[in-house]
Design brief:
The chain is an alpha+beta fold and about 170 residues long. It folds into two domains: about 15-55, no CATH class; about 75-165, no CATH class. The chain is built from three helices and nine strands, in the order βββαβββαβαββ. The protein has helices at about 75, 110-120, 135-145, and strands at about 15-20, 30-35, 50, 80-85, 90-95, 100-105, 125-130, 150-155, 160-165. The strands form two sheets. A six-stranded mixed sheet has the order 4-5-6-7-8-9. A three-stranded antiparallel sheet has the order 1-2-3, with no helix packed on it. It is globular and about 55 Å long.
């Protein structure tokens, strides 16, 4: 059972929730996120090849069949959100929904993280999310505090989350 959106056709690279219950063989019989890996159409059949997604574990990173999946703007926006949202001054926000603004900054550069945080502030959304590589989470937390922005800092796999509250004056 696919439960990601109103659309009935999953496309390559999309992440969907699938209920694997009832299980077959050694499958885990529960709802799991999966990534669609095959081309959009396999001949005439609407068959999709999916791979379950699991939490990152450093002990398994050397296995050749384990890969890192880095979320993109489309996944950050969700089914009701938009990507590349225009902001004043010709700037663009990576992803936004009605209440949430999301910026994804992979560079690790302090100044680029600072610019991403400023775009979050300019969005005027209630919720701010800054996604960075795990090693850059401390920089991102520092930037949000420096700019007095309340928000959430997440690593790319969303396995580590920090909530930052704005200092009251």
């Amino acid at each position: 059972m696919i439960t990601n959106s109103d659309e009935t056709q999953p496309y390559q690279g999309e992440i969907w929730l699938i209920d694997f219950d009832p299980k077959h063989g050694s499958e885990i019989g529960k709802e799991r996120p999966v990534v669609v890996v095959n081309a959009d159409y396999v001949g005439r059949l609407p068959i999709r090849i999916v791979v379950p997604i699991t939490k990152y574990q450093a002990s398994r990173s050397s296995y050749p069949w384990m890969i890192d999946i880095h979320p993109g703007k489309r996944n950050a926006a969700g089914k009701s959100g938009k990507t590349e949202v225009k902001l004043p001054g010709g700037r663009r926000l990576d992803a936004a929904t009605r209440n949430r603004a999301t910026e994804i900054e992979r560079s690790g550069d302090y100044n680029r993280i600072l610019q991403a945080a400023k775009r979050l502030r300019a969005s005027r959304k209630n919720q701010h999310v800054l996604k960075v590589p795990h090693n850059d989470m401390a920089k991102a937390r520092k930037v949000l505090r420096q700019l007095s922005i309340s928000g959430t800092v997440k690593n790319m796999g969303e396995t580590s989350v920090s909530h930052i509250t704005r200092k009251k004056r």
